[in-house]
Design goal:
single chain, alpha+beta, 8-stranded mixed beta sheet, 5-stranded mixed beta barrel, binds 4-amino-1,4-dioxobutan-2-aminium adenosine-5'-monophosphate, binds magnesium ion
Length: about 475
Amino acid sequence: MRLTEVREISQEPGKYAGQRVSVGGWVRSNRDSRSIGFLVIADGSCFAQLQIVYSDALDGTADGAERETPARRLDFAGTAKLNVGAAVIVTGVIVETPEAKQPFEMQAEEVFLEGASAPEYPLQKKRHTLEYLRTMPHLRPRTNTFQAVFRVRSVAAFAIHQFFQQQDFVYVHTPLITASDAEGAGEMFQVTTLPLESVPRREDGAVDYSQDFFGKKTSLTVSGQLNGEAFATAFRNIYTFGPTFRAEQSNTTRHAAEFWMIEPEMCFADLGDYMDCAEAMLKYMIRSTMEQCPQEMQFFNSFVDRGLIERLTNVVESDFGRISYTDAVALLEKHNDEFDFKVYWGCDLQTEHERYLTEQVFRKPVFVTDYPKEIKAFYMKQNPDGRTVAAADCLVPGIGEIIGGSQREDDLERLTARMDELGMEKSDYQFYLDLRRFGSVRHSGFGLGFERAVMYLTGMGNIRDVALFPRTFGNCEL
Ligand code: 4AD
Ligand code: MG
């Protein structure tokens, strides 16, 4: 059966006026008086819903045998009894209602029940808190807030692909199970089939990984970057867009154990090229989303984060700030009395410092560059000063770090010396060193945390509300 989407009708109500169409969706609200009722359904095709007017002329007697669906045909009383959440198909005529909140509605001729909803359906027509909705992740996409979040998430993801595809970046898929720690931070989830109750051990007492599935110790990846660099040194410009995993025990609004990351890698590119690319990418993503999701963005602006649209519009129209770590620390030190964690040169910037820089000082996104090498990953290009690396983090208001990236160390000797300093097992990274041995090239890349990008786009304040089934420290439901 051909169902018309509410999206099609709302885009051109004039074209549908007077026409008989069938729409399938889920009941959002239902009220009736003696001989007339109002059913509002959402069909998932767009943010707008469809108000359906039904009357006691509805005929429930004729059977629906000619229908392709085995649905039951409802009369007025049956329709009036429909609970919120029920799935229905309604056939009727579209009429324009220019004076009403929504400029069109449907006059029902036939109502078919696809699937009834029990009266204890938890999403009744009232505002529920985000905390309450988190207790039912499987049902919350049926609410306005999560309709808007996941539409934006979809559109933003596609915009990022478009941005890179238009510039001939190759989209590559890097492995999720890995034998190397890309960030060298040791926050990895181990992957094993060894029996945890009786782990096989070698003579010296160490776990005998030769008996494990892969014959060695393996984990879920924290980043596709190192594999991405192998692709980049063949294709020049590549990007990944996939899940990554971190066993960070940080119970914050911005940390998830499973999140999606976009990791471009560009050859013949330095730190400045990375920042230019990242800035253009964020602006493209914002612009596309605002263009394609005007109703959703208006909803966020009204109910989630007042000022969101104005802020994002400013971001698209102005240049991001840029400041070196050293200058940023000098600036922040003057405000140490306002911070829980005091700033000094060499410290890792905490969220409170990042947010102070982007919210109070710059009031827009800012790149902080050239961090001390001790607080950054082993692969970052060492600067001539011997103390810092050519790294840059992009900080945005409301969130803090949204992107991390760097120019990569392309000098074999300096890279191996740094790995030795850090006590890394070079034999695990032979493939990575080969990239410096055979045609090494100046190259740079970065990682955008996609959930944080969606938070930034929507104004949603908690990463648990931009992933439908969030995995966070101590929490893995469904
Ligand atoms: O700064 P990170 O650790 O950088 C990397 O992984 C590099 N390999 C990227 C690269 O250069 N190719 O992570 C990149 C981004 C962060 O800026 C943040 O937005 C996001 O990933 N991120 C997280 N998002 C949600 N939950 C977590 N636990 C995250 N950890 C990092
Ligand atoms: Mg980082």
